[in-house]
Amino acid sequence: MAQKSIAVLTSGGDAPGMNAAFRAVVRTGINKGMKVFGIYRGFNGLLKGEIEEMNLRSVSEIIGNGGTKLYTARSEEFKKKEAQERAAEFCRSKGISGVVVIGGDGSFRGARALTRAGVNCIGVPGTIDNDIACSEYTVGYDTAMNTALQMVDRIRDTAQSHDRCSIVEVMGRHCGDIALQTGIATGATAILVPEVEYNIERDVITRILNTQKTGKKHFIIVVAEGVGGVNDLAKYIEQRLGIEARATILGHVQRGGSPTVRDRVVASQMGYRAVELLSQDIGNRVVCMRDGKITDLDITEALDMPRVFDTELYKIAMTISI
Q: What is the pLDDT of residues 258-289, one digit of tens each?
């Protein structure tokens, strides 16, 4: 029987823990007697043939590194059927029967297309936003939250020193999970997320005024990227309340850094599960966490799932942040 060959790539935005998942795929595959190839720069690299066979030492000393050793990219070309067929033919020419795709929803759509073209693919959720509906946790989320927490704690020091209101934008274009968790952890006076309709007077100004009555003189407002407008909000607060207000956009600092224990462990579990599936010639699946356990779902089923925001946690945040 011919030796089974698989490959692994990272796609879309980078996330801390991608290297841990990559490492787990390589070492699990080799342990099962497979050849394992690393594809550089996502689906773009697959189309260009940027591929290298991995060995055990190829992934040494990377589990604690942020970013992705395989590099990453977004590929508009791969959305075309001709490109998908070309990528599948390249995989067949290398004897590759399956590919692990580490990334988000867009990456999973690419994985589904490649599976339909004849190469089994398994998706592993790697995105700091925690915005994969089928999985209650995505690789990189915990690290990003802890980075945001550290940054807001530092901003609070200067806000307190100046009796200032600091408005901090964290990542999350369509998903407010980082903002919600960071807001709770830092005791933010107000938290604005894309999932909850807000009114500036009711949800920001009134909350600041009520908190002022208890003697507090500095305030933190955490805003998700998808809400935006932090500079305008800072100006409005200054004009409306006469409080010095400053806006800070944390940006890509949240993507980098050494992954936390949780991200390293979950990434390792998910990478292992992905290879287990490919070893059984199973494709078109997404590895995910549900009820705290690692499992897998059909890609189309996973992509069609509506994402559910934790409204109960948001209610708790609004109750205790006073």
A: 999 999 999 999 999 999 999 999 999 999 99
Q: How far apart are CA 96 and CA 35, in angstroms?
A: 9
The SS3 assignment for 79 reads: helix
Structure tokens at 201: 């007077």
Question: What are the residue numbers of the active site?
Answer: 129
Do the beta carbons of residue 117 and residue 87 sit within 8 Å?
A: yes
Convert the pLDDT of each residue in 129-187 to its tens digit: 999 999 999 999 999 999 999 999 999 999 999 999 999 999 999 999 999 999 999 99
Q: Give the Cα separation of 10 and 277 in Å (integer).
A: 18
Residues 6+ apart with CB under 8 A from 89: none
Q: Helices 261-279 and 141-161, interaxial angle, to 10°?
A: 160
**pLDDT digits 0-9 by tens, 218-261:** 999 999 999 999 999 999 999 999 999 999 999 999 999 999 99
Phi-psi region at 25: left, alpha or beta (left = phi > 0; alpha = psi -120 to 50):
alpha
Name the band, by pLDDT with cuts 50, 70 and 90, for residue 1: low
**3-state class (DSSP) for residue 9:** strand
What is the CB neighbour count within 10 angstroms for residue 210? 12
DSSP string across 279-304: HTT--SEEEEEETTEEEEEEHHHHHH
Q: Domains of the chain (ranges plus CATH)?
A: 5-140+259-304 (3.40.50.450), 141-255 (3.40.50.460)
Asked if 113 contacts 84 with a C-beta cutoff of 8 angstroms, the reply is: yes
Mean pLDDT of 46-56: 97
Torsional sign, CA 260, 258, 129, 228? positive
For residue 175, give the amino acid letter.
C
pLDDT of residue 314: 97
